[in-house]
Amino acid sequence: MSTTIDTSSTRAGAAEGRPRPDGPSVRQRKPGGRDLVAALPWVAPAVLLIFAIVLFPAGFMFYNSTRDISISGLDQGSVGFDNYVEVFTFPYFWPIFLRTIVWVVAVVGVTVVISLGLAQILNKAFPGRRIVRLAVIIPWAASVVMTTMVVYYGLEPYFGIINTFLVDVGLIQTPEGYGWTRNPETAFAWSIVIAIFVSLPFTTYTILAGLQTVPADVLEAAKMDGAGPARTYFGVVLPQLRGALSVAVLINIINVFNSLPILKIMTGSIPGYDADTIMTMIFKYIQNQHKVDVASALSVVAFLIVIVIVAVYVKVVKPMREV
Question: Given pLDDT bands bounded at 50, 70 and 90, which one contains residue 11?
């Protein structure tokens, strides 16, 4: 006795999305309120931490920027956006803004270029590679203030070891003749050098991690196709570093923009505003002029600038896009 199975109806039912007769149907669950409640114990600590460390201080900063706060810290009422008007009408604001852009672009750009070379060297096998890798991380492990103070006193005209070395190699005539930290341009330039030095370890190790994910068979295929070292690097290796470079550049932009210790130590004794960035200007508003309200307004402006820079960078670079 034979049994006939209507396969056409089975195929039609599968095509229409109905469950097949020979197996159970799999239904996709949409996340609902029950899933949210179940995840809440795990998510709540992070949400509370973000609120306490980021959102609440940012909101309070914006609130202070609309108040009239006396030198003694007394809130004398709302002034609307007068503090913002004072910030943007400050004669040195736009030069300071441009100098901040120069500061960020110079430090991040040079750091990435040097780190690409360092990472390429550290990715090779050579005797003592482990020691060299440990040496590269020292500037990151050391205190930024300590590193800056060493350079600052090394540049002192009368007893600075860096000045003495520059005399020995013939770059300057006498160590007393040039005060590097007493001139706005040279102090700012040396600040960039220090910022690059302390930014190298993180950037180098991030790129090095990206280099170690490049498939060896891809490099071998490029070599078999006759590609030289330069073409292999720029055509094969560099595109594979897209994710690592994106993360390194983004974090460096945020860190360098908000950097205060290096500039405060190197340029803090220089009168005027010829070596200031937005961060040092905020510090001067609080420390020297005791204008917490105006400093809060400038802090809000700086915060918005960072948000805009990050948004534009993510939109243009698309760091999460697969290669």
Answer: very low
